Amino acid sequence: MADSLQPSKLGTKEHWDSVYEEELNNFEEIGHEGEIWFGEETVERMVDWAVDNIPPASNPSMVEIGSGNGTLLLALAEAGYPPSHLSGIDYSPGAVNLAQSIARKRNQDLTFNTSDFLQDDPPLLPHMQDQAEGVWDLVLDKGTLDAIALGAKDEYGRSPAARYPGRVNQILRPGGYFLITSCNFTEDELKAQFATSDTRLTYHSRIEHPTYEFGGRKGSVVSSVAFQKAEMPT
């Protein structure tokens, strides 16, 4: 799956640093907040899923991997989730600066940090305590795995995306959820990558997206799939 994708500039940090440098300049000059990856409707559907499955009243701790301009986390805050429980990480400092600037403009006290998910655990929020196994109630991804899968392969031809499912398992608390939206992988391909004995993730649900028909086959532009991590054995 990921190993079959050919590397491209979309999988390089240099590309995203350049993109977010330009978007940060545009925001500072004309107030434009930048591209909404996969569009506003996808953001709304992911927020609706969260509200239905992990309601704001439960005060869940959420982290978005590759938070970009922060659109998804801002939408979650507007839906009633405590900003102090929302965190975003991105390996591009420009993305973090842009998200912080937009959040300040909207008077939302959200946390964004520069961090490479494949190398480092997301920094904990002030109310959180480090635990032996995972701390986050919900881990979110909107297009980040897609970009990682386009990165340079190692000497054995493996994509950097091969390390991604294991990293999700490490930071997600038992019983917690992982919600991902992808344009490079189908629902079945996401299940094959994440619902394994190694990750202890099982398929939970999917988000319906508008479909199209081509050549007698139906499909959608993006796939959104939720997984849940197994509880610790008693």
Structural description of this entry:
- There is one protein chain.
- With 234 residues, the chain is α/β, with parallel strands linked by helices.
- 32% of the residues lie in helices and 23% in strands.
- The chain is built from seven helices and nine strands; from the N terminus they run H-H-E-H-E-H-E-E-H-H-E-H-E-E-E-E.
- The strands form two sheets. A seven-stranded mixed beta sheet has the order 3-2-1-4-5-9-6, sandwiched between helices. Strands 7-8 form a two-stranded antiparallel ribbon.
- The longest helix is centred in the first third of the chain and has 18 residues, at 13-30.
- The chain is globular.
- The mean pLDDT is 91.
- One of its GO terms (molecular function) is translation elongation factor activity.
- It comes from Lyophyllum shimeji.
- InterPro entries: Efm4/METTL10 (IPR026635), Methyltranfer_dom (IPR025714), SAM-dependent_MTases_sf (IPR029063).
- Its EC number is 2.1.1.-.
Summarize the helices and strands and which ones pair or pack.
Layout: H1 13-30, H2 40-53, E1 62-65, H3 71-78, E2 86-90, H4 93-105, E3 111-114, E4 136-142, H5 144-148, H6 164-171, E5 172-182, H7 187-194, E6 201-207, E7 211-214, E8 217-220, E9 223-229
Parallel strand pairs: 1-2, 1-4, 2-3, 4-5
Antiparallel strand pairs: 5-9, 6-9, 7-8
Subcellular location: Cytoplasm
Enzyme class: transferase
Main location: cytoplasm
Question: In summary, what is this structure?
Answer:
This protein is α/β, with parallel strands linked by helices. The chain is 32% helix and 23% strand.
Q: What is the CA-CA span between the terminal residues?
A: 35 Å
Structure annotation, total helices: 7
**Overall residue-averaged pLDDT value:** 91
Rg, nearest Å: 17 Å
